[in-house]
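We were asked to recover a plausible sequence for a given structure. The inputs and outputs are reproduced exactly as logged, with field labels preserved.

PROBLEM: sequence recovery
POSITIONS: 379
GIVEN STRUCTURE:
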């Protein structure tokens, strides 16, 4: 694989120090409580711990040969061929007794770059994660569409796994998941769960979703609703009596609604607004913040599809959704700023961190002005 001259020079200057085996790096990742590991030229390995990047300065800088060696330690010949063709690859890797890892490989400046995300073997519960209690009610619904949204790394997959774990322990359902790659591994309890991985068990989300509908499902989980055919089929599946749960890379409920509608050609959008308004059950939008005292905690915007929300979606008035959420606490709804303000008032997160992730910091600042002056600085 070719590399730019500047990268070759850096690689040569790094010397021939021996890099650790990938399993040693990944054990270090888990032992230090990090969420991610980044392996890229010409830096030493980098961990993400509680949202912050920490360079492992005690280790030598990575060389192109060193990164390639790690890649070859964790991939099959077929995966390497796919990467060499597409210059990017998503897959999973496991260390027995340690954890599973979601891995993304891509090429940058002519060299490999790897990112590992920890996926624990044990599925956390709704209570352990501090998820909104409404999650139990939503995952038990017999039909409809539930969207879990947020930026990359916001914990969507973990939230989805916890909800599915609750369903598995409490109800008899036939569940089919379509993932890229499979992250949390489920074992049948009350539910029968089949997990399909893109690239191994199916070629594309849309085709897998179409065939899932012929496999007598009660619940279909879509790892990412990324294109028009997948979103269209998901809406149809929800219309025909299935519970469909999917994720989107959007930052709030209103944007999630617009993203779904805008995926379709303009001529179809009015009809899709009607269909979408009828099948949507909820949108959970989340962000992760540093927890005071260590660790991280999720804050949630919650849209529940009440008759008024359905009307706003149908009429194209998504700008009014935020106001409706503000006033909908009795129905289980809340805006992200309300969630952030509550975490600050309960001293779970700092004022500074809450303002940093808010889309409307001035509005949140006004809400926080009501916090007692007697509390410590930073709250």
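RECOVERED SEQUENCE:
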């Amino acid at each position: 694989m070719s590399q730019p001259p500047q990268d070759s020079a850096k690689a040569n200057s790094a010397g021939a120090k021996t890099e650790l085996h990938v399993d040693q790096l990944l054990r270090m990742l888990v032992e230090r409580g990090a969420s991610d590991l980044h392996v890229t030229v010409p830096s030493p390995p980098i961990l993400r711990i509680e949202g912050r990047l920490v360079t492992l300065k005690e280790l030598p800088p990575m060389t192109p040969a060193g990164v390639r060696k790690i890649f070859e330690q964790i991939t099959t010949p077929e995966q390497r061929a796919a990467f060499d063709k597409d210059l990017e690859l998503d897959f999973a890797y496991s260390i027995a007794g340690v954890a599973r890892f979601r891995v993304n490989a891509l090429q940058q400046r002519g060299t490999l770059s790897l990112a590992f995300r920890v996926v624990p073997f044990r599925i956390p519960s709704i209570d352990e994660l501090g998820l909104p209690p409404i999650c139990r009610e939503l995952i038990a619904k017999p039909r409809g569409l539930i969207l879990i949204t947020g930026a990359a790394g916001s914990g969507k997959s973990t939230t989805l796994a916890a909800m599915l774990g609750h369903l598995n322990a409490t109800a008899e359902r036939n569940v089919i998941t379509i993932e890229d790659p499979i992250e949390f591994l489920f074992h049948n309890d009350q539910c029968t769960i089949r997990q399909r991985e893109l690239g191994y068990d199916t070629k594309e989300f849309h085709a897998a979703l179409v065939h899932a509908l012929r496999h007598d499902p009660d619940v279909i989980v879509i790892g990412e609703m990324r294109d028009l055919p997948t979103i269209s089929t998901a809406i149809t599946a929800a219309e025909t009596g299935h519970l469909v749960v999917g994720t989107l890379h959007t930052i709030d409920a209103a944007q999630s609604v617009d993203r779904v509608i805008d995926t379709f050609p303009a001529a179809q959008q009015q009809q899709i607004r009607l269909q979408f308004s009828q099948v949507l059950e909820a949108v959970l939008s989340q962000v992760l913040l540093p927890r005071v005292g260590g660790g991280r905690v999720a804050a949630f915007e919650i849209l529940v599809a009440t008759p008024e929300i359905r009307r706003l979606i149908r009429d194209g008035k998504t700008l009014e959704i935020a106001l409706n959420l503000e006033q909908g606490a009795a129905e289980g709804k809340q805006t992200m700023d309300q969630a952030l303000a509550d975490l600050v008032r309960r001293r779970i997160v700092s004022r500074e961190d809450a303002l940093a992730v808010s889309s409307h910091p001035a509005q949140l600042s006004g809400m926080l002005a009501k916090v007692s002056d007697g509390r410590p600085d930073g709250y």
